[in-house]
Amino acid sequence: MTVHPTNWRKASYSGQQSACVEVGSIADGAAVRDTKNRAAGYFTTTTDQWSAFVAAIKGGRFDA
Q1: Which of 33, 34, 51, 64 is most buried, judged by most C-beta within 10 A?
Q2: Mind listing the pLDDT tens digit for each residue in 9-44?
Q3: CB neighbour class for 9 (10 Å; exposed up to 12, middle 13-18, buried from 19)
Q4: How buried is residue 43: exposed, middle or buried, by Cβ count under 10 Å (0-12/13-18/19+)?
Q5: Is 19 exposed, middle or buried (0-12, 13-18, 19+ CB in 10 A)?
């Protein structure tokens, strides 16, 4: 089954930079792609996976 993400949007923290990711909507989750290389494709996550990832970011799990 082919997934066609819609409503692509650039990460809000990227400002005017081009080194960031874009997130698109799919029926049960999110699609993510590289803003500088959209032709490379994207990966998809379920709603639960995406929510866990966002919560980990907000919780500082990936802070150096």
Answers
A1: 33
A2: 987 766 666 668 899 999 999 999 998 898 999 999
A3: exposed
A4: exposed
A5: exposed
Q: Give the up-direction half-sphere exposure of residue 21: CA atoms within 13 A in the CB hemisphere.
A: 9
All residues at 6 or more sequence positions from 55 whose CB lies less than 8 Å from its CB, including other chains: none
**DSSP strand pairing (21-26 vs 6-10):** antiparallel
**Environment class of residue 35 by beta-carbon count within 10 Å: exposed (0-12), middle (13-18) or buried (19+)?**
middle
Burial class (CB in 10 A: 0-12, 13-18, 19+), 30: buried
Q: Rounded mean pLDDT of 36-64?
A: 92
